[in-house]
Design a protein that fits this description.
The chain has eleven helices and nine strands. It is α/β, with parallel strands linked by helices. The chain has a six-stranded parallel sheet, sandwiched between helices. Strands 5-4-6 form a three-stranded antiparallel sheet. Strand 4 and strand 5 form a beta hairpin. Helix 2 crosses helix 10, helix 5 crosses helix 11 and helix 10 crosses helix 11. The longest helix has about 35 residues.
């Protein structure tokens, strides 16, 4: 889905994560406390002019970032991605006027568009969510060129981690594995019973069978609702999001941000967790994540600075994510390799889909031939 892949907490910031079993939230409180302390440290450090801000890019362009990678000085790239990397796969974002997900929910007769992802509303009225899930369910879409560019970063040893707001699982389909990914807003990959006393886990195939048979998924053990492990309004982000960011971002030497408006907290705040000398490249249809002017007056950094006289590390490449990644790959000398990867992997997906379709047809034909003939009247 993304922005039908970004599950958004539009105006509310998640304060503390809860462990998956929700039996003890001490680790979540600790992570949230660390995040608040980091904010204060950064504020005072920036206001007082502490810390270094070395410039490592020869020029603030896509070419400059490509040369930096080719120099051998870049070894730990973190990708931050959102809805924009999946729209070319046919998955709508949330906010685009007229075509975005929120603009096309009238048929579900919701009290307000965001209710479809509100946990309390879901528990009382699950039908709209599962009807939408059928339209957007993973397995119906192919990863984009941008997804495969991230996979290429992994194959070449550059990728430290991909932090995604998307719930469409296309990063996994493209070849990223669990350790490569932080699915900040959850995933359809697994599901759990909503009952705190049960929490039975179900896999992607189980949930898909329920959704496409138009059954409301209920737990085999306790008959409570079963919900995909995507983060709804009113729920906390996964603990792994908070623990991993503390390890990953201080080591990052290039932050690659693609297809996100950087409006959703705490995800958007990740851009400020890299070192002051770490270059940050945005590939997006418009500039995003720029510093609030009020914070700028007191010297508080973190926000992106593409245009001022003080800009020294932030680069905005305005294009679709696919076009931007293709241009980036060409500058790196990877264009042919990337195009071949996309062609090969899409062919595999098409082949598997045809095999599944043939198997279903054969099964239906076998059932038909096994049906008893009606008795003839004498």
């Amino acid at each position: 889905m993304s922005d039908a892949s970004e599950l958004i907490k539009e105006e509310e910031e998640v304060i503390a994560p809860e462990p998956e079993d929700q039996s003890d939230d001490s680790s979540g409180d600790e992570a949230a406390g660390d995040t608040e302390m980091d904010f204060l440290r950064n504020l005072f450090s920036s206001s007082l002019g502490l810390g270094s801000a070395d410039r490592v890019l020869d020029e603030l362009t896509l070419e400059g970032v490509a040369e930096y990678i080719k120099s051998g000085k870049c070894e730990n790239i973190i990708c931050m991605v959102g809805a924009g990397i999946s729209t070319s796969a046919g998955i709508p974002d949330f906010r685009s006027p007229g075509t975005g997900l929120y603009a096309n929910l009238q048929k579900y007769k919701l009290p307000y568009p965001e209710a479809i992802f509100q946990i309390d509303y879901f528990k009382k009225h699950p039908e709209p969510f599962f009807a939408l899930a059928k339209e957007l369910y993973p397995g119906q879409f192919k990863p984009t060129l941008c997804h495969y560019f991230i996979k290429l970063l992994k194959d070449k040893g550059y990728l430290r981690r991909c932090y995604t707001q998307n719930i469409d699982t296309l990063e996994r389909v493209a070849g990223l594995e669990g350790d490569d990914l932080i699915e900040a807003h959850g995933t359809f990959y697994t599901s759990h019973c909503v009952s705190f006393s049960c929490r039975q886990e179900y896999n992607l195939d189980w949930m898909r069978d329920k959704i496409f048979s138009e059954d409301i998924p209920r737990c085999d053990k306790c008959k409570s609702l079963v919900k995909p492990d995507i983060v709804f309004f009113g729920e906390s982000l996964p603990v792994r999001f908070f623990t991993s960011m503390k390890m990953d971002f201080p080591r990052c030497d290039l932050l690659l941000i693609m297809g996100t408006s950087l409006q959703v907290q705490p995800f958007a705040g990740l851009v400020g967790r890299v070192s002051k000398s770490c270059p940050r490249l945005l590939i997006n249809m418009e500039k995003a994540g720029q510093a609030d002017p009020l914070f700028g007056l007191v010297g508080f950094g973190g926000g992106m600075d593409f245009d001022t006289d003080k800009a020294y590390r932030d680069v905005a490449h305005i294009s679709t994510c696919d076009d931007g990644c293709l241009a980036f790959a060409e500058l790196l000398g990877w264009k042919a390799e990337l195009e071949e990867l996309v062609k090969r992997e899409h062919a595999k997906i098409d082949s598997l889909a045809e095999q599944e379709k043939a198997g279903e047809s054969a099964g239906a034909a076998a059932e038909g031939s096994a049906a008893p003939e009606p008795e003839k009247e004498e």
